[in-house]
Amino acid sequence: MxxxxxALKEQFLLRFLEVAEQLQDGGRFLCCKEDLHPCLNxxxxxxxxxxxxxxxxxxxxxxxARTRPASxxxxxxxxxxxxxxxxxxxxxxxxYRPAPLTLGNLRCKRAxxxxxxxxxxxxxxxxxxxxxxxxxxxxxxxxxxxxxxIAAMRELARVLGRGGRLLFAxxxxxxxxxxxxxxxxxxxxxxxxxxxxxxxxEFALVTDRGEFIAHASEAEAQQQKYGCGCFLFRKQK
Length: 237
Description:
Elements: H1 4-24, H2 51-67, E1 72-75, H3 79-85, E2 91-95, E3 106-110, E4 123-129, H4 148-159, E5 160-172, E6 177-179, E7 183-185, H5 188-194, E8 199-206, E9 212-213, H6 218-222, E10 227-234
Parallel strand pairs: 1-2, 1-4, 2-3, 4-5
Antiparallel strand pairs: 5-10, 6-7, 8-9, 8-10
Helix pairs in contact: 2-3
């Protein structure tokens, strides 16, 4: 019995043979069988997206647009986030694997999140989103460390300046789990405990169903298995 994928590929090839001459549009384009690039699953009723990465970066960009820091430091978050947000806020991006990006208003450097190259309380605007859950699990070439995430969170709290803001996002759920070597899942209370002396200004949530809740509660976070918690912390002056 043919698999569904094989059947789709056969239908695609038959369709190509049917329209190949028309695709060339009188010689305007070269159309060869060797250049076929089958996209067989994109004809859907709605545009699919990764809810975690669309919503947490959109949330963070809106925070920066609202708070308008003079400059911003990001530690290993989405390159899409820093490349777009740097259009209106100067950003320096640090990663264990530095990114060779060349854009105005954006600088890229190397850093180890468990030992950041900043003095105590020296960063006024800081983000680290969908990153800490990976630290110490060896996924990205970093050394094995069961408490690497704790060291990372301590570093973020250490370098955040008085009155400064930290945008922090991690997988969130009702039960703390590790899916080695992909990521950890945290409880809401564990994140607050890790940043115990920071003030929580805002909490947003991406649910298991892919819904975004701009002002979410701890109870809503506890109902998730693999949500995305977006925490806006501030250090008291």
